[in-house]
Amino acid sequence: MGKVEGLVCDRGLTLGHLIGVLHEFFTRLGLPKLRFKPAYNPYTEPSMEIFSYSEGLKKWMEVGNSGMFRPEMLRPMGLPEDVNVIAWGLSLERPTMILYGIDNIRDLFGHRVNLSLIKRNPICRLGL
């Protein structure tokens, strides 16, 4: 399983900044249609689940989780009180499934993998 995580620390960061970063990130992956749903995470508040729409599968799929670190999580790090931290984490499998119209994660791993799909699609896409 592959995973991508990110965080940004700065003064004045808001939930709007987090949503903007996520829109830019997923648009560059080829997934411009996003929705956000409030969620609970022990280290962030507010927290959001991230969903992307799959045209091929005609449904919304969860692709990640995100939020703003709670102040009590930042104090032990010695950050100034006016510094906020936005963070996100996502699997690489779900965006891949959306981009290639795969509805069963087992089609990406193990004996069911369609090798012709791998051969037809480049590993690296330049210009993103």
From TrEMBL:
The EC code for this enzyme is 6.1.1.20
Q: Where is the Aminoacyl-transfer RNA synthetases class-II family profile domain?
A: 17-122
Name of the top EC class for this enzyme: ligase
Which Gene3D superfamilies does the protein's record reference?
Bira Bifunctional Protein, Domain 2
| Database matches in PROSITE patterns | AA_TRNA_LIGASE_II (PS50862)
Q: Which SUPFAM superfamilies match?
A: Class II aaRS and biotin synthetases
- Keyword Transmembrane applies: no
Q: Name one GO molecular function term.
A: ATP binding
Q: Does the keyword ATP-binding apply?
A: yes
Any one biological process term the GO annotation gives: phenylalanyl-tRNA aminoacylation
Residue stretches in coiled coil: none
Name the UniProt key words of this record, in alphabetical order. Aminoacyl-tRNA synthetase, ATP-binding, Ligase, Nucleotide-binding, Protein biosynthesis
Record's Gene Ontology CC terms? Answer: cytosol; phenylalanine-tRNA ligase complex
- The name under which this protein is listed is phenylalanine--tRNA ligase
Q: Which organism is it from?
A: Haematococcus lacustris (Green alga)
